[in-house]
Please model this.
Amino acid sequence: MSEIPILPLIILILLPSMLTTSLSSSSSIHDLLKSQGLPGGLFPRNVDSYTLDQDGLLEVYFNEPCEAMFESPVRFDTVVKANLSYGGLIGVQGLAQEELFLWLPVEDIIVQDRFSGLILFNIGVAQKQLAFSLFEDPPICNPKGLNMKMVGRKERLSNQLQR
Model:
């Protein structure tokens, strides 16, 4: 009976986990986004952790579903997934934007030209261009169902007073 070397077996078992980068929010999802030509504030401050695999699959984790305010309310599930490439989050899952009292899933987030000052949100039935500057500072994500219109106004007022 031949012996199977143990070291190559251990490497084969551990290799998949070594190829995925798992980072806490303190190592900054916001810096990662900026390094990929995206605004750092696309995800809120209270990201629990995230993973980025070798193929560019980004998974962002939250303790609970929550809502944040940009130009309109945005809802984050406990896990948001997308393929990260330079200037884009493609095939987004777990993110929805409120439009005319409807929650529509965000499918793609694309910065076609950083110097244009615009970012494109593909919400399936339509594409929406928003100012890049809306996403420079990470918002606070509040538990799902909280009245976001009031929270958004208070947060904007607080930010203006701090400046």
Notes: The longest strand covers residues 73-85. Helices lie at 6-18, 29-35, 148-162.
